[in-house]
Amino acid sequence: MYLKSLELSGFKSFAKKATLNFNSAITGIVGPNGSGKSNTAEAFRFVLGEQSIKSLRGKRGEDMIWNGGGDGPAGASRSNRASAKLTFDNSRRMFSTIDFDEVTIERIVHRDNSNEYLLNGTQVRLKDIIELLATAHVGATGHHIISQGEADRILSASIRERREMIEDALGLKIYQWKKLESIKKLERTEENMKQVESLRREIAPHLRFLKKQVEKVEKAEEMRRELISVYKIYFAQEEHFVATEKARLHSEIAEPRKELSNLEHALNKAKDILTASKSKDVTSDELISLEKKLADTRIETDTVVRELGRIEGEINANKRAKEKEEGRMKQEEFKTVYLKDVEEVIQTIENFHSIADAKQLFKEVIQALKGFVTRHRSSTDSQFIIDVEKELVKLHEQKKELEHKRAQLADHEKKITSEYNALKQKIEQEKDTNRDAEKEVFRIIARQNEVRHVVGSLNAEIVKIEHSEAEFKRELGEAGIIVGREATQYEEFSSLNVKGSINENRTEQENRKHQIERLKIRLEDMGAGGGAEVMKEYKETEERDAFLARELADLEKAGDELRKLIADLDVRIDVEFKQGIIKINKEFTNYFSLMFGGGHAELSVIREVRRKKKNEETELGEILSGDIDANMQMGANEANEEGPEGLEVNVSLPRKKVKGLMMLSGGERALTSIALLFAISQVNPPPFIILDETDAALDEANSKKYGDMIENLSKSSQLILITHNRETMSRAGVLYGVTMGADGASKLLSIQFEEAVKVAK
């Protein structure tokens, strides 16, 4: 036996605890009308998870609770809860998911309509109970619980409802649940796919924008590598050129400087002779004075020349800075800004909707756009060029003044030299013995002029090369800032051929310099400074998109698997259903023949035919166009379409021309429904069957046949019979009698089979 006992406490009319033990294959429950015997069948439905209170003959959950009865002191007070507990023998593992020999399922309802479900004393969910019972083909409203008046339901149901009943009886409900769960999962999967696709669509424009930015960064990086390469060659060449030129100039100027020192010493010696000479005259003093003036003029001229060299260097540096800024400003007009920055200014403009005045609105919009341009334009802008131009004007003025001063000094030197030459000629004409010293002074001064000219030229070249060296060092520092220290590590290019480096035309180096300036301007315009952030954001966004793509692929795969599972379940349900129909028809015919002494009965699979009305506007158009006759409209305005498959019951009674259910009498319908229910139970026997007065409409002859079928059915399923029929009672192994006292509470009495037979006879 699978079913061991049913324990009721406070359930409906069972005020006190009552236990029904099912130790026989057939257990009968008898009692007068209104005693509460049908409450036992409802208790089965209740504990098995029935959610329709109406089907349990109630309106609310508290209607299941004993509400008290009787007016005297003996009347039992009402209960605060109702419980029903079923105990199953699980030694043969009817419930395969539980490894216990005994399984108890209990449901408790409280006055506040709250429910509790207990499995072996542990609180669980209703879903857990339903899934457990489904493994044994047991449910709250299954074919194994047939209440009074519901036996005919399988015949009066629609073909679609009848199919659902048969599927439930064949144990296909578990597949239906799996199919339903799969459909729900598929719906969730498709919804998730839509969300993922939506997310990908949202990030796609940003990803495309970032990709373009990355391409710019990559181009900037390529340009940076090119700049580094040019820098290294430029620095190696420039360093070698400066070092070589400095060495050459210092080497060439050493001898003239030494000669000047010797000439200065000789000149001083000659001056000393003239000063100490007894024949000193005005001519000697004049000669010494002219020499001093000439020396001072030349010193001042050298100072002016050096200052001119410095000014020219600054002018060149400022010109290059101006050209660089002008190039940068030209590129600034095509500067790319981030999409989020544009969205910010759009959001700012959208916030002006509250401004009613059109002029004020226009003014605010223009101000917002100007602010946006100002924020994204470099701070130096045209003011830097203005400052540089002012500095250039100042330097040119200084240069002009120095050139004027140099011209004045040149004129002054020319004048002194003219006086000096005139005095020299005068001395040459005189034959005084002291004139030899004066002649020596003239010779020394003449030579000094020649040597000083050479030294001055070399000094000018040294100033120029020193300026080049300063520019080289400045560019070296700027390169480290713009493209990194790698550009300053040019040792690999320092092994250039020395001769080739010296003989190289300086135009080549100037071209490199211009190339460097162009690359720097383009690199600055491309915003290479934020490249790392752009690459990081692009990588993160690309990884996010790739993740979503993988997730979408996984969801598509899961969707395909679910569709395949649903299709497989449909096939399995259809195959097992049709195989089950064949088996049911065999048993149905046997039971039907047994009940009616012949005849034939079967279930046939048909498709539901639905009426489909045409669109009225379409019909009117067809009539007006003459496509259809208005007289035919009444019959043509409806069209048939096929619906889902269902089951039709076909019966043929012996000795009668009755072939439809509508032509059966009440008794015949009862016998037919019983035959069909028993046939279903034989094909897929449930562990127990509860029959609540299904034999009420049977006469004595048919009651005997009913009893024979019950005994045959009890070989495969445990039966609980609620009946008034004596023949049915005689087939029970144990009889429970239900009585009701003055307090309105149901009570149980039990007798064994032998005594039940005596009472029934």
What is the level 1 CATH name of the domain at 1-144 and 723-761? Alpha Beta
Query: What is the total tally of β strands?
Result: 14
Poorly predicted parts: none
Indicate the percent of residues in helices.
55-70%
* Category from helices, strands and their pairing: alpha/beta
> Could you tell me the radius of gyration in angstroms?
59 Å
What strand line-up does the widest sheet have?
Answer: 2-1-4-5-6-7
Strand count, sense and closure of the main sheet? Answer: 6 strands, antiparallel
Please name the defining characteristics of this protein.
761 residues; alpha/beta; Rossmann fold; six-stranded antiparallel beta sheet; six-stranded mixed beta sheet; 19 helices; 14 strands
Account of the 3D structure:
With 761 residues, the protein is an alpha/beta fold. The chain has a domain at 1-144 and 723-761: Rossmann fold (3-Layer(aba) Sandwich), CATH 3.40.50.300. The chain is 62% helix and 13% strand. The chain contains 19 helices and 14 strands. It has a six-stranded antiparallel β-sheet with strand order 2-1-4-5-6-7. Strands 8-11-12-3-13-14 form a six-stranded mixed β-sheet, sandwiched between helices. α5 (173-276) runs antiparallel to α12 (506-525), α6 packs parallel to α10 and α6 runs parallel beside α12.
